[in-house]
């Protein structure tokens, strides 16, 4: 089946930005998970996006209990297309479910409570480790820059694989 809505959970706004870009590109309605509960009947087919924390896609469990999740997008700090096996394993996803990871961004000032505390510690420890590393990869340089200076990596280009999957689903329905 083709999803008939995009549903998301966002913490700092990067996942919301991707959901809106996907909605614009596909013409599908876009709802937060809370909005979807009021507007979508259980069992609807959706494309779900959630922010990543230690490989877990936030809100996915709740969405999967209520809707048929056709594909899952996790938005985090890592490069688009990375961590796919970790996300699949951590979220106990069936091998047939399409999974995508999207690089979002980092802004410590947007975080609250325990998340801010956790990321403050991570910035200090991971940032120090990356700073001291002599042979950093371009991805590690980008991660260090994001940790030290913040910033968004949200872009339409990062959605290429998701939009290709959606286009194939559309073609199969014809």
Rg (C-alpha, Å): 17 Å
CATH class category label of the largest domain: Alpha Beta
| Separation, N- and C-terminal Cα atoms | 11 Å
- Uncertain runs: none
Please state the average pLDDT score: 93
CATH architecture of the largest domain: 3-Layer(aba) Sandwich
And the CATH topology of the largest domain?
Rossmann fold
Order of helices and strands: EHEHEEHEHEEHHEH
Give the % helix.
40-55%
Throw out a few tags for this protein.
alpha/beta; 174 residues; single chain; two-stranded antiparallel sheet; 2 domains; Rossmann fold; six-stranded mixed β-sheet
Reconstruct the topology from this structure.
Blueprint: E1 5-9, H1 14-26, E2 30-32, H2 33-39, E3 45-53, E4 56-57, H3 60-66, E5 68-76, H4 84-90, E6 99-103, E7 105-106, H5 113-132, H6 138-149, E8 151-152, H7 160-173
Parallel strand pairs: 1-2, 1-3, 3-5, 5-6
Antiparallel strand pairs: 3-4, 7-8
Helix pairs in contact: 5-6
């Amino acid at each position: 089946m083709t999803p008939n809505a995009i549903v998301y959970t966002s913490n700092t706004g990067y996942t919301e930005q991707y959901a809106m870009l996907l909605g614009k590109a596909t013409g599908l309605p876009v709802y937060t998970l809370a909005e979807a509960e009021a507007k979508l009947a259980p069992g609807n087919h959706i494309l779900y996006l959630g922010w990543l924390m230690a490989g877990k896609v936030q809100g996915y469990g709740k969405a999967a209990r209520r809707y048929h999740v056709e594909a899952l997008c996790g938005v985090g700090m890592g490069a688009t297309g990375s961590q796919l096996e970790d996300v699949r394993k951590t979220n106990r996803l069936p091998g047939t479910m399409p999974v995508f990871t999207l690089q979002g961004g980092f802004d410590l000032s947007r975080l609250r409570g325990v998340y801010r505390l956790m990321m403050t510690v991570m910035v200090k420890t991971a940032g120090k480790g990356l700073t001291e590393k002599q042979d950093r990869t371009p991805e590690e340089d980008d991660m260090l820059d994001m940790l030290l200076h913040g910033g968004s990596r949200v872009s339409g280009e990062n959605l290429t694989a998701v939009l290709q999957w959606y286009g194939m689903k559309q073609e199969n329905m014809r």
